[in-house]
Amino acid sequence: MLYLFPLFLVGIFFIVIDVLAQQSTVSAIVKISVCGNNIYEAGESCDNTDFGGRSCSNYGFNSGSLACNPDCTVNTASCSNATVNPPGGGGSGGGGGVVVKPTQASVIFSGRAYPLSAVSILRDGQLAVTTIAGPNAEFKVTLAGLSTGNYNFSVYSEDKYDNRSTLFSFPVYVSAGSSTDISGIFLAPTIDVDKTSVKYGEDIAIFGQTVPEGTVTISVNSPQEHFKNVRSGADGAYLYYFDTAVLELGEHHTKAKAKLKNEVSSFGYVVNFVVIDTNSPDSGGIVGNKPDNKKEEKVYKGDSNKDSRVNLVDFSIVAYWYNRSNPPAGADLNNDGQVNLVDLSIMAYYWTG
Questions:
Q1: Which of 41-50, 285-294, 339-348 is predicted least confidently?
Q2: What is the pLDDT of residue 77?
Q3: Does 230 score more than 50 pLDDT?
Q4: Edge to edge, what strands does the sheet with 105-112 contain?
Q5: Long-range contact list for 39-43, CB < 8 A, 24+ apart?
Q6: Which range among 182-186, 248-252, 255-259, 291-295 shows the weakest confidence by mean pLDDT?
Q7: pLDDT of residue 9
Q8: Which domains does the chain have, with CATH numbers?
Q9: I want to staple 40 with a disulfide (CB 3.0 to 4.6 A). Which of 52, 141, 196, 211 is the partner?
Q10: Residue-averaged pLDDT of the chain
């Protein structure tokens, strides 16, 4: 039944690549404001009894007292325009107010992940709440019912290839009745390579997902570190073919970070690969000088990463360029300037597995 597998691929427009889950933590700078700490702050209309010096008169009333809702918005239900009797004295409502006491604490998380990706929030290492990012990669989710105390929160997401991001972690102290807003979260791009062993002088495909239309900086480690920039597409996916001719033989690694407007993520996971001699078997690696010649190998139509095989890795590269403009020759198999079902059919014909 194996011969049927490549035919099945023709009707698929994307690929899911299973990878081992990695665990890592990156430092992060986030914006935190607290509703419920009795301090009127930016973004709040009030905070418990602190109304920033305002009274009912600031809202068009001549008497009564302001109240503060649990989400730090003003409640004017107790304000009125009733006639004030002179003997009673006291004038129209002063700066004080009635506090609507919150019954529970909550934390609001917001930031950027990957378009339509599942975003997970961990509380002290345990899954607490999940949400789905929008097409623009932005997400916002509230975790309610928290008790007073210190918490370690972590945020991660998974891209369309099932590659997981690094953990975006930070400690937060939550007080009774407060609402803590944690914004500015920017998850690092996911990253993967099309092969872990590449012959000197051949390209290695580095790909992953981040925010749409962002600038991805790819770092490739070597005695001299190499940096390359590539633009992510509308779906946040990015792909860069790195020429290994600039690298020494031996082990290397790559990582990526993203920038959108004035926001920059940290670098994400490190992915390892090895550059080997052209005369070495694919599974090995020789550390030494750069080779002087290259061994000629059989070339298959559809072998996008030039490893002498046509398999799922090649399909993932072709699928990335599906209906995209200016595809490379390795993806546009019939050289008609576009990647469509015809190219997938050609790949299926030359499939080696």
A1: 285-294
A2: 86
A3: yes
A4: 31-35, 179-186, 105-112, 138-146
A5: 43/181
A6: 291-295
A7: 47
A8: 33-80 (no CATH), 104-186 (2.60.40.10), 188-296 (2.60.40.1930), 297-353 (1.10.1330.10)
A9: 52
A10: 79
The structure tokens listed for 88 are 């009673």
